[in-house]
Amino acid sequence: MNQHLKQLIDLSFIDKEIDAFEPQIEEANSKYEAALAKKQSIDTDIENLSNEIKAEELKRQKNEIHLKELSAKLQDNTKKSSEIKTEREMKSLQLEEEIAKEQISFANEEIERLERIIASKKEQVESAKASLAEIDSNLESVKAEVDEKLKVINKERQEVFVQKEKLLSTTNQKGLAFYQKIRRWAKNSTVVRVEEEACMGCNMLLSDKILADVIKADEIITCPHCGRILHIEESANE
Fold it and tell me: By CB neighbour count within 10 A (0-12 exposed, 13-18 middle, 19+ buried), where does 9 fall?
């Protein structure tokens, strides 16, 4: 086999191996990132609930102020009742009292409703805080576990990088430039096998001449359909 072709085939295997580390790293990080995302989500929930509680407490406060005003009005009407001189004045005062009492009843009901809402939201906050505390307690151990996995992955990846650097130091620069140009768009299918007379990059059938050239492996042959570098596994060529 042409030495330059063999170097590119070996390089393609190493590049695939290097690229395979990325999903491993993502998977290792995903557990910690998921825990952080959950923590962030709970923090946001607590903040939103706290803001909602403040809003409900403000509504309750307004109703309590209104309630005091109505109570003061009733007391004032009681004082006025001793000064009533006509039936018309009495009826007017009674109407005011009835309206005030209805408003007092509504304000009390509204205050009770708001207190139930506030209590419910406070319970939700406490529950969220408990979940947050649990996540915080586990976060350190999750981080340590992830770091250990990444340490192993990075060690293995570094060993592959060393292999790649060693190979690159002996690789023909013109062939390397050609390989890298194809790899920019073909990624890990830059160098592909020929199986059943077809390119495994684009699955198109190859002509007899191209097949013969690939089998000889005297030079670098590319697929006429997709431009990928072709090769036949040595075991298949024997």
Answer: buried
